[in-house]
């Protein structure tokens, strides 16, 4: 089995959800064309019988005047222009947003220059902010099916609007046809054809922001900007979208109709007045006039799940967990049995089912945290975007945690060059950790810690933080490093006497996200004030322009200075003067796989949420660590990941890993899992590498990985069959 929850970028799952729903929506609209009036009457009757949602629903009409989408074929062959959606968003294990850039890019329709890639588009606060958040993969990847949009499914008595709509669609298909043929000539290069213009986005949400349906109005190429049709011809599409959003809501929940609907456009509101009552839905008396896609608007987290085998979403099929382990989601008995019988045996659910059952038993332990918001953030239905937005955490480093919140603060990779340093390092090391309200980090305590901290409760008390503060979500990285240095290394490698060292050189391996949050490591100087630390971030996912950069953070002066050259030196103030000498935190960057790194041997290696089996470079980096024989500690977001890491370590080096233990400084935010119900948390577990003994050397005694179950589990069967088998089994036992 293979799960990528906790590793895969959430935006990719979001894009896959949008694409899957939109494709189903377009397909069903096409099938209704065979018997238009009868099918519409049938669908309307079905919707009138649906239960009523107490929440208000909103039909948003979001115009887009400045940003177009350019499609490219990319370096890998696919079934058509661009990479196939099933390969890009379904079957290919964890991709990152930058992986999409060869296939989808943004183009300015005003000056013809390419815009930033998806992750940057999410962070700008322009008028079309809400549009681009839903557009990138939705407008890019489903282009092949949208080029073949069937005739619009229209309710009766809309013939005049029908002619206008059909005319628009014909024009759209011609423009898209030119864009479709262009990539075939370039064979793997990015498309240079005129961009598609997404003139308008129709979006159905409830009042809480949960997305229920989406429709895209393509308006051809750059030359058509400013000539998009008015909303007078949107009524048939909007009505079809509303019907499908009620019968098959994209977000969470069963089919339902709203108690009331409001429309964000006056013309469309007027056109829908005679149509919406057919569905048994009350239309607001007047159109909504006050809402707009402002930078602060956030969509609620989508909680649609997928089948682990066929990847169908919960809006397509009913998903149920495995009856034995309750960990893995399936759409039916066929997918469960197919997963149960996979070959080889150790990738089948038959092999993993008893293990996953034990992993599920740890859910309560992992959710045992002291914060006032623990129950909310450890729930399976945790709405991360709403939580952050309600607390004003919509800028700075908080944008690294969120899927859709725009970030008017810092860029995604603030350490890309000297100008960024001079802009961001203004003497406050906690600048990027703040929200929109009062300061989240209190002043540094005057006295250093008198004892070692082993829990969030102890650290928060000493640091002066309220248990209502969400800072643990960002501080999990430096506090995990602190815990490894002060607790785990002395336990597992006492001969190193690490607590008495005055300087430590630490390599942070495969560091991508952690480098984007680099200023949080300033807290190590607060926790270990008498140790000079050097952190070297290593990995080929780091920004190439940051290669070989280095800078120093010092606690002995209030000023900040930035010096040009091969490195950068920044002097930051902690607010207090150190007693007994100055201690520094040096940051170095190497944008290459760890096995290609040259330089002195470190004292310690640390990796966060590593996923050894998900990246081929680990098969070379782990032998490199084996040759160095340096203490190496890694975190994982689940016990499943720890078991897979142990197997990868055995294959790569012949060694193994220690038994994973829960990290007391794990992030309190539960991570979203699409195809399973296991508890996933950033930095949830910690283990260290157990190296294969050197030839003729002593064997280090260390606990090994979890043992395999002694006998395979029995396949899950329906309850009635199990009772019958129990009766049959009791007979032979009585005869003995």
UniProtKB/TrEMBL annotation:
Cited Gene3D superfamilies: 6.10.140.2220
Biological process terms in GO annotation: negative regulation of DNA-templated transcription; spermatid development
Biased composition (Basic and acidic residues): 123-136, 170-185
GO molecular function, one term: histone deacetylase binding
Organism from which the protein derives: Cricetulus griseus
The gene coding this protein: Zmynd15
Disordered, as annotated region: 71-94, 109-193, 546-583, 697-736
This protein's UniProt keywords: Metal-binding, Zinc, Zinc-finger
Stated name of the protein: Zinc finger MYND domain-containing protein 15 isoform X3
GO CC terms of this entry: cytoplasm; male germ cell nucleus
PANTHER family noted in UniProt: ZINC FINGER MYND DOMAIN-CONTAINING PROTEIN 15
UniProt keyword Transferase present: no
Composition skew (Acidic residues), residue ranges: 110-122
Residue stretches making up the MYND-type domain: 307-353
Biased segments, Pro residues type: 704-718
Composition-biased stretches (Basic residues): 719-736
InterPro entries in the record: Mss51-like_C, ZMY15, Znf_MYND
Matches recorded under Pfam families: MSS51_C, zf-MYND
């Amino acid at each position: 089995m293979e799960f990528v929850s906790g590793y895969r970028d959430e935006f990719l799952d979001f894009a896959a959800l949008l694409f899957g729903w939109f494709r189903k929506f377009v397909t069903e609209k096409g099938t209704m064309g065979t018997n238009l009036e009868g099918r519409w009457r049938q669908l309307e009757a079905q919707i009138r019988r649906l239960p009523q949602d107490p929440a208000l629903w909103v039909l948003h009409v979001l115009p887009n005047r400045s940003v177009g989408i350019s499609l490219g074929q990319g370096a890998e062959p696919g079934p058509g222009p661009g990479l196939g959606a099933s390969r890009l968003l379904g079957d290919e294990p964890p991709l990152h947003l930058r992986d999409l850039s060869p296939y989808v890019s943004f183009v300015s329709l005003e000056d013809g220059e390419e815009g930033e890639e998806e992750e940057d588009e999410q962070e700008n606060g322009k008028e079309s902010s809400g549009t681009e958040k839903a557009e990138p993969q939705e407008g890019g990847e489903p282009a092949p099916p949208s080029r073949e949009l069937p005739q619009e499914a229209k309710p009766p008595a809309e013939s005049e609007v029908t002619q206008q709509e059909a005319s628009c669609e014909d024009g759209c298909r011609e423009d898209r046809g030119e864009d479709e043929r262009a990539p075939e000539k370039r064979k793997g290069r990015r498309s240079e054809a005129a961009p598609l213009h997404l003139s308008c986005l129709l979006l159905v949400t409830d009042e809480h922001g949960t997305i229920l349906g989406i429709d895209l109005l393509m308006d051809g190429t750059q030359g058509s900007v400013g000539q998009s049709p008015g909303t007078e011809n949107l009524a048939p599409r909007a009505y079809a979208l509303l019907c499908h959003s009620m019968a098959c809501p994209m977000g969470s929940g069963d089919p339902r109709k709203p108690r009331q609907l409001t429309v964000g456009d006056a013309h469309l509101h007027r056109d829908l007045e005679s149509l919406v009552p057919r569905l048994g839905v009350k239309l607001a008396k007047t159109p909504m006039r006050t809402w707009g896609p402002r930078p602060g608007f956030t969509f609620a987290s989508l909680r649609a799940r997928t089948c682990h085998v066929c990847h169908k979403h919960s809006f397509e099929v009913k998903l149920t967990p495995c009856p034995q382990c309750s960990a893995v989601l399936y759409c039916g008995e066929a997918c469960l049995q197919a997963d149960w019988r996979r070959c080889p045996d150790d990738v089948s659910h038959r092999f993993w089912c008893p293990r996953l059952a034990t992993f599920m038993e740890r859910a309560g332990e992992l959710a045992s945290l002291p914060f006032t918001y623990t129950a909310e953030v450890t729930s399976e239905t945790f709405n991360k975007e709403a939580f952050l937005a309600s607390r004003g955490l919509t800028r700075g480093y908080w944008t690294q945690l969120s899927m859709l919140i725009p970030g008017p603060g810092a860029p995604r990779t603030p350490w890309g060059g000297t100008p960024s340093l001079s802009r961001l390092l203004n003497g406050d090391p906690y600048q990027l950790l703040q929200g929109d309200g009062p300061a989240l980090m209190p002043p540094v305590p005057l006295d250093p810690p008198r004892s070692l901290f082993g829990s969030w409760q102890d650290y928060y008390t000493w640091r002066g933080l309220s248990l209502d503060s969400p800072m643990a979500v960002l501080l999990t990285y430096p506090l995990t490093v602190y815990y490894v240095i002060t607790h785990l290394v002395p336990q597992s490698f006492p001969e190193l006497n690490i607590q008495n060292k005055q300087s430590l050189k630490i390599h942070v391996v495969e560091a991508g996200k952690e480098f984007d949050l680099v200023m949080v490591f300033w807290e190590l100087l607060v926790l270990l004030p008498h140790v000079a630390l050097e952190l070297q971030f290593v990995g080929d996912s780091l920004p190439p322009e940051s290669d070989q950069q280095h800078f120093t953070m010092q606690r002995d002066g209030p000023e900040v200075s930035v010096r040009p050259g091969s490195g950068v030196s920044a002097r930051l103030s902690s607010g207090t003067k150190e007693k007994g000498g100055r201690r520094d935190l040096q940051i170095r960057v190497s944008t290459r796989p760890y096995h290609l790194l040259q330089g002195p041997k470190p004292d310690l290696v640390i990796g966060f949420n590593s996923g050894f089996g998900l990246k081929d470079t680990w098969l070379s980096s782990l032998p490199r660590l084996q040759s160095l024989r340096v203490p190496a500690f890694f975190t994982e977001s689940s016990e499943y990941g720890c078991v897979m890491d142990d197997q990868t370590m055995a294959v790569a080096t012949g060694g193994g890993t220690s038994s994973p233990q829960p990290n007391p400084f794990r992030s309190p935010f539960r991570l979203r899992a699409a195809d399973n119900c296991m508890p996933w948390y950033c930095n949830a577990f910690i283990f260290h590498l157990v190296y294969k003994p050197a030839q003729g050397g002593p064997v280090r005694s260390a606990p090994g990985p979890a043992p395999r179950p002694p006998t395979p589990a029995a396949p899950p069967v329906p309850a009635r069959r199990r009772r019958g088998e129990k009766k049959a089994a009791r007979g032979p036992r009585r005869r003995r």
